[in-house]
TrEMBL record:
The chain crosses the membrane at residues 25-50, 56-76. The keyword Transmembrane helix applies. It comes from the Bacteria. Keywords: Membrane, Transmembrane, Transmembrane helix. Pfam families: bPH_2 (PF03703). Residues 82-159 form the YdbS-like PH domain. The keyword Transmembrane applies. This is YdbS-like PH domain-containing protein. InterPro entries: YdbS-like_PH.
Amino acid sequence: MHTEAIDPPGIDWQRVSPKFVTVRVVQWALGNLMAVALLSLPLLFVLLGWWRWPPLWLAIALPAVTVVAALWRLALIPRQVRAIGYAERDDDLLVRTGIFFQRTMAVPYGRMQYVDVAVGPVERSLGLCTVKLHTASPGTNAHIPGLPAEEGARLREQLAARGEARLAGL
């Protein structure tokens, strides 16, 4: 992962699993298949003669534009997954996301209220999980998707221990 202008210097980012691309593609497929099917209904109704409006060109353009936009988003998925990273530092955890709209968040260990590990059916089949960090402020809640299950469990225990130590003032 290359360093961007908003990243602190000298950070060794840990990446999420490349298998997470599969999870994102499945999510993409489910959402876009429903959207294209729904937006194709006017075309079907026009072709069957049930509707006279919209004109045929518009009924064709609506699902076609949706398909083109969906394919563009599909092409971005591998790059978006490569942009996700995290780094454990002495006092906080850095979480980085985004290609066009980049975000680097520092979550102080002492602010963490609890660390949650979640897994969906596709993630489970690939041995992945999502680590969710909860703080007192909803704006600083962060998550790291696409981690191998073992790394997620390790990170949960490590972050919880560091959070308790910071809260205790050690």
